[in-house]
Structure formats: structure tokens, C-alpha cells
């Protein structure tokens, strides 16, 4: 039995460590803070106990004593307990206090460091906290000390004389007082200063000024916590080194409606291009139970989606089989509806023989026109178009349609619906995402009633676009290549 104090990083889920993700996936109990990445808990086991222990300045608090009590209690009864903390647990995170209490209680502890906001937030704002020419040292300090202390533990005169960068955590409310103390201690009033709000997270904002002006500028621009303050010549490098806003989709908000697992992959790509992503999954795929098919009976095996690939292999694996269950290439062809499906097959060790350039049933049926076939298997969703099976039957082939998964409606919460409606773009990757999204927001009339401020609709291809038109909606953007790469390219062109 071990309690793991795990740093979740400053907010960008891409900055979480491999060890943190591993422990989250193993945990029986996760006690988590407020400032963790949005998707940090996505990898938790369905049966894991998730306990919120967040704190917010001026808001509701879970007392530290209660958090410590919970850690000791669960540390004595659960095999793997994760205490998930924003940033790094030992950098202004009270991790030292928690480890002391756990060790005193005789409980095994592991500490997993995380990327701390004092380094990450400035980096995302184009500010290196050290620089060969201007800063050979850096000091980290908190602007929010223990209120029970009779006096500040910080020697402001010594900090003012410190020959390097000062990085202040949790200092928004005390920013004016901090600046005044540093100036009074001899720090130049004209020294460059910066304040970064929500560093590494969607909506990151930064303000540049001087030690004398930064508090006023922050108030004028309504900068709120969480924020990191940086004092020193390096703050002046922001304009020259800023890289975040140079990404092509910086400042653009995009709602993703596809199933959560695949939506997360699309979200990662979009975030990598600088977009703020709203996850609004309106569908969920689930594998249908059943025996693995006798693949050697077929001379053509067709897959019409990556989900179909994953679901069929789940059946094979349940019976102790893998890609060797497929007939040799000399005896059978494997067809994929598009590049994404072909990629899913390749990851399983199968190279598709037939891959049309357009990921639609009509293109796959045409691509199969010259492929000899006697008996075919089509692995697909329970509800799907019959374009491919019908085309093969017209050629005289015997066709078995095997439903290996189904698409299930997932209703959005009012908060998700409101966030999606406020986005710049909303993406649709299938006809079912169109139908289910409209159902979640109250129908077409309710969607149109939102007026011209509603997001631009992005369709992955003609089938999805036809579904939009069937509801009286015209897609604003349609991908030329009917996969995620095409969807991203279409948004980038807009």
C-alpha cells in the first residue's frame, strides 16, 4: 500500500509525465486538486474512487487537515492511492507537509515531480527564467504565505538585491505590495515585469510592464488567479521569443463532437496547432459481444471505420487470436474505407490492399470493382449504410455483414452545450454526430435561434454534409480528404 504524491503539471495535459499517467491508470483512489489538467482523470479506472480536494482563494476550501486525514485513511486501506496536485507537489504545493504526515503514520510514500508553473508559464509566454546574457540565477517565491505567521518569512531587501529573475507564485492579490517592497529594497522601478494568467492552459493571457506599472496594468486588464509574476530583464524577451501565439489556430475555439476516445486524439492535434478545444462528445461507441469470425472463409475482408478494426480485434483477442488469424495475402484481400482505417489495421500488423482516396462507401465500392471476390466479410457498425455490401452482392459475391460495434447517444450537459455554442467552429465527423448534437441542443430550431454568433460548422465529408443538409443546415467547411488530417487542413484554410 502506497500513497503517491503526483505532480500533474501546470495545466497543459501534454506536460503530464509518463509516470503520472501510469499511476492514474492504476489508482484505486485519487485525491485531486482544482488546478489539474482538464483531461488528467480520463485515464482513471472506471471503478476508481475520485475525491475532489480543491482549494480556491476566497472560495470554498477543503481544509488541509481533512485532506491529510483522507490520505492516511485511504493509505491504510487501498493498494494504490494517488494524491494528484497541480504543478509540482514540492513547489508551494504543501506536499512536504503531506509526506511528513504519511511517514509519521507509517504509510509508504512515492513522490512524482511535475512541471512547475513557475517555469512553464513563463516559457509558454516566451520568457526564459534564465538567460546567458541577462539572468544567471532565478528565485521562486510565494505571494501567499501562511496567514498564521506573525511576520513575513521573506527578506524583501535581500530579494530586491538578488542578481537574477524573481518568479512569484500566487501573487496577484498582493502584486502592488510586492512591487512596492522590491522597489523600496532597491530593485529598479523600471525593471521589466510580466504577469501570466492561466499559463499553458486555454485562454492564457500575459501582461508586460515594469516593476512600477505591472500592478496597475494587471488591474486594468483584469488579470485573475492563477497567475505567475516574473521580475527581471528576461521579461522583456516576451515580444521576441513568444511562440504560443504564432501557432496557426491560436485564439480559435473549436468544439469536438466525436466520441470521447477519438475526440481526445483530435483535440490533441487541435491543441498542438494552438486551438482551445471544447470536448462535447455526443456519441459513444461500444463493442458488441460475439464470437470471432472464421476469417479463412473469406477472400475479401472489408473495414469501414477504425472502430470496426478495434472491435474485431477485441473479438480475436478474447479467443487468444491476433493478426495471424487473417488468411495469407495470396488468398485474401483486406480493404479499408480510408487512410485512418488503414492506419488502424497497420497498427495491428495488417497492411490494407485496397484504400480509396475518399473515405466514403461509394469510393470503397468503386475501388473494389476490379478485385476478384467470391465471399466477403464487412466488419462495421450495427447501423450503417449498405453501399459496400450491396455493390459486392451485385457482382455475385456472397457477403456476410458483421456488426462488431454500435454507436450510442451521449447527451451533453447544459454546460457542454453552452460552451460548444460559444465556440468559433464545431466539428462533425459522422452523420450520427450531427443527429445527436442537434438532439442535445434541443433541435434545429433551437440551434438556429442562437443566431449568427453560433459556431461555423465543419464537416469531415459529403455523407456528414448531407446529414447537415437533411436538417436544413449548410456546412460552412467540408474537408477535401475525409479524415482527421483533411478536417484539420480545412479548418486551417478557413
Give the mean pLDDT: 91
Q: From the 3D coordinates, which CATH architecture of the largest domain would you assign?
A: 2-Layer Sandwich
Individual helix count: 18
Assign the structural class, choosing from mainly alpha, mainly beta, alpha/beta, alpha+beta, or little secondary structure: alpha/beta
User: Strand portion, in percent?
Assistant: 15-25%
Q: Summarize the biggest pleated sheet.
A: 5 strands, parallel
How many structural domains?
4
Strands of the largest sheet, in order across it? 3-2-4-1-5
Q: What is the C-level CATH assignment of the largest domain? A: Alpha Beta
Anisotropy-based shape: elongated
* Helical proportion, percent range: 25-40%
Task: Please report the distance between the alpha carbons of the first and last residues.
Answer: 53 Å
- Total number of beta strands: 20
Q: Radius of gyration in whole Å, from Cα?
A: 27 Å
CATH superfamily of the largest domain: Tetrapyrrole methylase, C-terminal domain
Q: Which topology of the largest domain does CATH recognise?
A: Methyltransferase, Cobalt-precorrin-4 Transmethylase, Domain 2
Q: Give the low-pLDDT segments.
A: none
Structural write-up:
The protein is an alpha/beta fold and 494 residues long. The chain folds into four domains: 113 residues, Tetrapyrrole methylase, N-terminal domain (Cobalt-precorrin-4 Transmethylase, domain 1, 3-Layer(aba) Sandwich); 126 residues, Methyltransferase, Cobalt-precorrin-4 Transmethylase, Domain 2, CATH 3.30.950; 114 residues, Rossmann fold (3-Layer(aba) Sandwich), CATH 3.40.50.10090; 119 residues, Rossmann fold. The chain is built from 18 helices and 20 strands. The model has no long low-confidence stretch (mean pLDDT 91).
